Amino acid sequence: MKRVIIGGTHSGCGKTTIVCAVLSALKARGLTVASFKCGPDYIDPMFHKSIIGAEAYNLDSFFCDSNTLRYLLCKNGKDADISVIEGVMGYYDGVDGKGSAHSVSIAVGTPSVIVIDCKGASESIGAVMKGFLDYITPNRIEGFVFNRLPERLVPFAKELCERLGTKYFGYLPVNDFSLESRRLGLVTAAEVENLKVKTEKLGELAEKTILLDELIKTSECSVPEYVPLKVNRLFENRRPKIAVANDKAFCFIYYDNIALLRELGCEIEYFSPIEDKKLPEGCCGMILSGGYPELYAEKLSANHDMLNSVKSAIASGMPTVAECGGFMYLHDTLRMSDGTEYVMVGTIQGTAYETQRLQRFGYAAITSDKDNLICKKGQIITTHEFHYWDSTDCGSDFTAEKADGRSWRCVHADMSLYAGFPHLYFYTDTNIAKRYVAACAEFGGIYG
């Protein structure tokens, strides 16, 4: 089972650009490629999907144990000629040994290649390489790709690899096709002008400057051993329909979550809170995904029919999960940094407002203070937050705690609602999805 992790020295070193270049080049060779992202990121997999024409998935060692990671890797990569796994932040960056690309490489037995940003450096590149090779062992690092390396320094990069006993996998020169960023990460794939042209050009460049044959050779690994997770349809005769928000404003979706809901017997129908006038006919559950509602606040606010449709559905008891951007959408208003306010759904009596720094960023364990839609009282769920926005009423039905001991109250939850900033990944505990699906089925009158 061919697979390789492309990690990096730090956030912003160009690993997503390198990964997109490699995916594009492999695709152009006629290979069937599966792609994954280490960690909880939503945006990078959107770029992967736009290139390979198939869903991209996450592998997160903070959310999942090693067996689950191996199961998901094999489940989602079994039909591919090669799986390419993009790292997260710096290769070793995580929390208590979890969440890093390094921890994923060990858990799933996968060789890694590290991207180094070479702009403004020469001999110091070797110091960075040696540090990554020696910092932790075993580390599964097979070699390096050199980003933004001048062509004249290619012989020097090769010499460094030989000196340090590692492999040279090529380079990418400074180019006009690198991907843009905003403060929550990359601009989403749907927002990039001429994305197809850019990624094709990156692929053509990679074919010339990255040693793809060596990368493919290095990716040859045995199939990892795992115990399959037991996921069965909950209902024989009917399929609960779940409406999932999916448009430019609400696009942060873990497709493993969607796949799990389908395996449990659900029908998924996507809808747009920006463009559509009401929820899909016959739905008995709703997921309001995270995303960037603030960028489309005026259009969302002007779509009165959809606002009323969502509010009425929640008021009627329709089981609803609303995460981060979806949670913001449920407020009375969104307040922009210039003071402009836009009317939203009004289920949450409060205002979501913009701040100037990340709020409660990172992984947290949330403990339920009462029985609710997704879990029982006292249950602990691993979640992740990544947002600059905050709320005058974040909720108080869960208690969140970070590894460093910081804690706070969060989330509005009852037997038909989970609404808060923390994002959920269902493979943390598949019972979350099963409990939610059972509630949707009961609401739709088909339970039992």
Q: What structural category characterises the helix and strand content?
A: alpha/beta
User: What's the helix count?
Assistant: 13
Q: CA-to-CA gap between the ends?
A: 41 Å
Biggest sheet, in brief? 7 strands, parallel
Strand content: 25-35%
Arithmetic mean of pLDDT? 94
Query: Which residues sit in consecutive blocks of at least 5 with pLDDT less than 50?
Result: none
> Would you count the extended β strands for me?
26
Shape field: globular
Tell me the helix content.
25-40%
Rounded radius of gyration (Å): 22 Å
Spatial strand sequence of the major β-sheet: 3-2-4-1-5-6-7
Summarize the structure in words:
It is a single chain. The protein has 448 residues and is α/β, with parallel strands linked by helices. Helix content is 30%, strand content 25%. The protein contains 13 helices and 26 strands. Helix 1 (15-28) runs parallel beside helix 2, helix 1 (15-28) packs across helix 7 (195-209) and helix 5 (124-134) runs parallel beside helix 6 (154-164). The longest helix is centred in the middle third of the chain and has 15 residues, at 195-209. The relative contact order is 0.11.
Q: How do you describe this structure in short?
A:
Helices cover 30% and strands 25% of the residues.
SSE map:
Layout: E1 3-8, H1 15-28, E2 33-38, H2 43-52, E3 57-59, H3 66-77, E4 82-86, H4 101-108, E5 112-117, H5 124-134, E6 141-147, H6 154-164, E7 167-172, E8 181-182, E9 185-186, H7 195-209, H8 212-218, E10 241-245, E11 250-252, H9 255-263, E12 267-271, E13 285-288, E14 290-291, H10 297-302, H11 304-315, E15 320-323, H12 325-329, E16 331-335, E17 341-343, E18 348-354, E19 362-368, E20 380-385, E21 389-391, E22 398-401, E23 407-410, E24 412-414, E25 417-420, E26 423-424, H13 430-443
Parallel strand pairs: 1-4, 1-5, 2-3, 2-4, 5-6, 6-7, 10-12, 10-13, 13-15, 15-25, 16-18
Antiparallel strand pairs: 8-9, 11-14, 16-17, 18-21, 19-20, 19-22, 20-26, 22-23, 24-25
Helix pairs in contact: 1-2, 1-7, 5-6
